[in-house]
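About this split. The held-out portion is used to measure sequence recovery: a designer receives only the structure tokens and must propose an amino acid at every position. Recovery is the fraction of positions where the proposal matches the reference. Here is one held-out target exactly as it appears in the evaluation file.
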């Protein structure tokens, strides 16, 4: 495992999350939308962030993109799990956590595979 590639992938995933989150926040602020779309857009933002992070990790490592993308996703999950418990104090739902974790792992894996296979 290339720790530097995983670090850069995680950093890119967080940066992409912040940028896309800000874009969608502005869109939701200026346009009235149904609140049911919030969940969909939140999952899209997380998915795209982890695909980009996995892509960068796989691209920098140039091998084992699946594992590098999965490690980026695992760090992302751990980071936000700790953040959720310490800062936000949100209620914990195991089913929701497992669903979102599966989507995150899938996104990181897809990004890592794409990062290795596209030169």
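Reference sequence for scoring:
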């Amino acid at each position: 495992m290339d720790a530097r590639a995983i670090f850069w992938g995680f950093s890119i995933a967080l940066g992409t999350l912040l940028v896309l989150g800000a874009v969608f926040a502005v869109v939701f602020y200026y346009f009235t939308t149904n609140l049911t779309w919030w969940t969909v857009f939140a999952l899209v933002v997380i998915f795209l962030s982890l695909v980009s992070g996995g892509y960068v990790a796989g691209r920098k490592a140039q091998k084992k993109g699946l594992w590098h993308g999965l490690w980026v996703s695992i760090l992302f999950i751990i980071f936000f799990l700790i953040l959720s418990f310490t800062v936000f104090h949100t209620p914990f739902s195991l089913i929701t956590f497992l669903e979102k974790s599966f989507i995150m792992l899938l996104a990181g894996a897809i990004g890592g595979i794409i990062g290795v296979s596209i030169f």
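Annotator remark: Residues 3-117 form one domain.
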